[in-house]
């Protein structure tokens, strides 16, 4: 972590917690936000829960604290005959201010391409949604020494857009596919190697982009490994799946980030 960037802890709920359980967890996330004021907190519920969760977070915000609401995906188009799809403006209307894009589960299961990620990132900026753009290699790619090549290719699809909109916030999540939901994590040194390479690509665009952009680590981040990962120089936060579904584990990850800021 670097004291110039506020750590960002984002919970990706995936296809879980659509109903009242999601609202209850959001209320607890607001407690976590109040308890960890040096950390920026975001939750990404399923589409159908965004409006209710955004409202809950707003109401609770009257007692202090802030928790942003993200969508997990969106269509890049603004409207039209696209059955089953959700536009950027619809997400903003529902109360989302963030959007996760290019998650490896979208790339793997729904064939999302670098080109589509490019279009979605551009559309997110137009709709004033803060993109958290995910990149990361598969196990096969890592084992064949392709990690940095793959990550840089995925990054090249949207890095110029980040530079064009350098005045607006954005984040990148490095999520090695082999670490997602598997209980395996990249060690802090492994993560840092890739995060530093990502930072270099940002630097080649501009010093401002490199200084501002938060690079999150994702892939089996848990209460017991968060602090070591977040302590790495170029790790500015975490995108948390499984451990974001319980307030206890999500709160512990936020506390790990908070303690690193406070002790720095
Ligand atoms: P995980 O998921 O923490 O359950 O590995 C992370 C993600 O997919 O964003």
Can you give a write-up of this model?
With 264 residues, the protein is of the alpha/beta class. The chain has 12 helices and 8 strands. α2 links the parallel β2 and β3 (67-71). The mean pLDDT is 97. 2-phosphoglycolic acid (PGA) is lined by residues 12, 175, 180-181, 218-221, 239-243. 2-phosphoglycolic acid (PGA) binds at residues 12, 175, 180-181, 218-221, 239-243.
CATH H level: which superfamily? Aldolase class I
H/E series: EHEHEHEHHEHHHEHHEHEH
CATH topology: TIM Barrel
Q: Which runs of at least 5 residues are low in confidence (pLDDT < 50)?
A: none
Number of strands: 8
Helix content: 40-55%
**Sheet bearing the most strands, described?**
8 strands, parallel, barrel
* Strand order, largest beta sheet: 1-2-3-4-5-6-7-8
CATH architecture: Alpha-Beta Barrel
Number of domains: 1
Span of the ends, CA to CA? 9 Å
Number of helical elements: 12
Estimated radius of gyration: 17 Å
Q: Which molecules other than protein and nucleic acid are bound?
A: 2-phosphoglycolic acid
- Strand fraction equals 5-15%
Structural class: alpha/beta
Average pLDDT reading: 97
